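Sample entry as discussed:
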Amino acid sequence: MRNRTLAALTVAAILSLHATGATAQEAVQLRLGAQPLEAALREVGAQTNINVFFDPALVSGLKAPTLNGRLTTDEALTFLLAGTGLQHEFLNERTVAIRTRPQTQKISATTSAATEETGEARQPLRRLAFLDSGAAEQSSASSAGATTPAPTAHTVEAPMLGEVVVTARKKTETLIEVPMNITAIGSVEIADRNVVEPADLYRTIAGAAAPEGQLILRGLSGGNSSNPNTTSTFTDGVPGSFGNSLFDVARVEVLRGPQGTLWGSNAIGGTVQVITNAPEFNVLDVFGSLQAASEKNRNDLSTRLYAGINLPLIDDTLALRIVGHSGNASKKTINTYNGFTGSDKDELIRSKLRWQATEDLSLTLGFIHDKSTATGRTSSDQSIQTGYAAANWYGVPGVSATDLGYMTLSFEPDPDGLYGYGAAVYGWVPCEQGQIRAECRATTNVAGNYNRRFAYWDLVEPRSSNTTNVTTLNVDYDIGDAVSVNYVGSFQRFQGNNIHSYSQLDFLDIFPSPYKAHYKNKTVSHELRVSSAGDNAWDWTVGGYSYKWSRDRTIGADTQWLPDNDFARAAAAELWGEDLSAVYGVGIYNDPTLIWLFSTLGGNFQKERAMFGETNYVFDLGGAGELELTGGLRYYELSYGEDREEVGHFGSFEDHYRSPVERGLRKKVSLSWRPHQELSVYALYSEGYRPGGANVKLTPSCERDPLAADFRLNYKSDKIDNYELGVKGAAFNRRTVFTAAVYNIDWTDVRVGISIPAGCGFTANAGLARSRGVEFESTTRLLSDLSLTLNASYTNSEYRAPVASLGVEAGEDMTQVPKYNFYMALQQGYSIFNKEAFARLGVAGYGKYKSHFKAAPGDISDSYVTADVSTTLNVNDSVRFGLHVDNFLNKEYTTYQQSAAAGAWPDMEYRTVSYGRERTITLRADFNF
């Protein structure tokens, strides 16, 4: 037996032996696919020129994950052996041996030095640790035949934190190498914190705001909208965010600052890159998660079910991965008119078929089905009313109170009057002092049976249903060892149907008046890149990008309706001064209930074409480290078109518009000094833009409004100039990793949306703005199983010139942006019943911010601090249970507030308030077979 083992070790050494080689601490570019561990160890030896000794019987049956990054031999072997019960030992500078890990040195929840950013390697259930490129391929590090020793008391000092690998510059690099401020969150942390939606993650990032879910970075909001589209999102290289879920996601990279050269338009604040797990060739895997959550003041449980399967179809050649999830949550907010509480439902199916056609050519065909439906409101109406017009009631034949709700107007019956009614009669019903609209007008069967913080009153229930189907294709082709070619393409179809209420705004709640919108959009995108490959002093990337959005021909895209009864027709005529039912409903549409119609005749489109490139050269400074100079350019062309027909009480016209082609150039240059591999100091200048576009011609009533002074048929792209200094690195033998940046952003031709009370809106270039700030993020391994995360920022974002149409004064702070935010978390690993477990405490804080310029008290969300706790227990290699409590102190806070007047009538203002999540207890079970 001894002779056979020595012979096997000798053979293994010969297979990995090279005459000359790198030292153990020199980082080299490694690229290994998912494969048996024996083959992976040989590949590491071959690619690093290190002799790797091992007994083939020791690694028999074990699988190795994909490894793709610039790593030392020590880091690569630590990653490959995580969770296998094996360890490596360097016998000399060029020789390493693989041995069984002694029982006195159990692998802990925080041992691996080359896993994801937290350094965690909980295998095989977690099997989520990664070092990977955009494909984010993974494989179980301890599958058939592998055993993971049970955790015991730790006898070693705090282990090193792992190196973070990102693809921010569309190539695989360590975080320290990239001269920009980046946050990378891996799959282990996503699961540990039970981060279900991206917005939950965004609120813990330094310098981020997400008042209503959309990420706003570095204070770049611009106008009164909480969804300004200043941060772009890509999923596996495809523009867009699908599923609003982070299940089976390898990592999320948040790139701060304008990314106008490599990532294109709408990335003025930054870019989010979501990287999902790719199919694995040689691993059959079934996995999933079940979650049930109970929130204070929510009547029902919220449930989410996730499931996935990885199917190896042909060894090392073809694999399929399918993931699905379904979520259902009732709303807390009640309509006191009828006692209705809505719900949110979502479903997702994501599939990927990966074909390794040759050693150098890989193709991945993907499909995503994403559907969401929502009823009711998430926000409440907290407007205080003193009363409402609802006096004399003379009876309306054929119309019940259920049809009409509360009467704010009534008529004397008159056979000779319009629709059988005479002059209108008004009166007044007072509300009790301090009552909100929902309380004052609540029906008898609802009165008192609700929480006033989660209530509204409306005659029409809002509803929405949105479906997206996406087909994607990713192609990766290596031309020798010098050049890599990458293609990412997508075809997306979107269909939306929505119902909103115009009962209060247009008809003083006399009768229900739904506003319905239905539309279909199509998006096609292509990106082709050619890049240098290998570990060279000079790297480069060049490429082309094409994007087209278009709206299908849809007659009746937006419509507004009246109830089909004589009372509603008479009341509408009284309020508007003309017979809407006769003039528009019968006279134009041949439908007495239809009073307004917007039609898309076909031809609506937005196009963007671009050529881009980026190159960097690394100068060897000898004992002073290395200096990297980077430069990038993006040339783009934009065009827009719209064919539109509008007929109704806002005016009647037809408009056909084609914009001239807008051309532009955006630049980036950076200088980065790395005195050693654990520290980088950089200076960066970068530019960004959001595409310009076309406005539809205003109606005559809107043209005369003073707020229309900034109206132009064509608005151009805005421009961002970002000046940034940063430092990132590791200290205390990699027990602390950190990033910090200070920036100054100049924003010209700010693109904002302008609303006119007469019912029109348009986009304009208005004003100059500036944002300055400081960002800091760090993670420290305090003890072997105890880590501390600290993120903090200060943001000062303001307009530098007045904008009359927005009501902005020079020096006024931006909307949606807190001056500061912070996030702290302590995570402790421990053992219970001889099972691995951990607990985490997180605390997040935000400064106050306003939703609108000319802010009233009802437009300001106050500062707040919330705390979350989580604990997880690994029952065995396949099952894990978690308990997560969000906002466990039950802090009351608001994420968004807006006060506005709904009309010229008394007490018709509304105050929309979105409250933050109350105490929520979630039970989570994960499985992996």
Notes: The mean pLDDT is 82. The chain is about 10% helix and 50% strand.
